[in-house]
Amino acid sequence: MSETSTELDLEELNAKFRLLQPEQRITELYRIFAREEVMLTSSFAATSAYLLHLFSVYQPEQEVLFINTGYHFEETLVYKDYLTKVYNLQVREVKAEDWKHEFTTTDQTWTKDPDYCCTINKVEPLEKLKEEHKVWVSGLMSWQSDHRSTLDIFEERGGILKFYPLLDVSREQREAYIKDHLLPFHPLQSKGYFSIGCTHCTKPGKGRKGRWNNSPKTECGLHL
Q: Does the pTM of the predicted model rise above 0.90?
């Protein structure tokens, strides 16, 4: 972290960044942190194109980490390859150790303990990488869930500073950006999927209602 960043506490960062637009937030982030200190993740799901487009314009050299759970829809993998090519993204796949993933497959852990399945295939693969970075960028938006509505642009969680440059973007603003910049939709959106995760735990549904259907679970654990 640069000397400037050590002079800014969480409250000061949030007060400063709340006044900025998403484009300005991304630009300003790199005045405080070096690129190698920043960890950007994407699920390449329904709402991913917005943040990835911004980074392709304002910080095109930033590496994008894609957590390959081994249970993604084929449409998600095709969408990832398409966005990677169109936006010239620097994508690196991150995944669980083979034996751990194979255990969840044989055990069908998602049917018994979806939290544990997410821990193995999503949360654990990022733990070591979190130790190598200062700030973690994610495209969460406050209207997506009750939990996300409680967040601020910056928060300190799990030993890393988390940064949500799109947090206060409304549905209407997001839709306008998509229209203005002709962003490509995830192929499953036309089939009624508006929040897209693993095949076993995703059904068609508005908002995040299709995730972990008939379960109180609303987050995979990455952002808790």
A: no
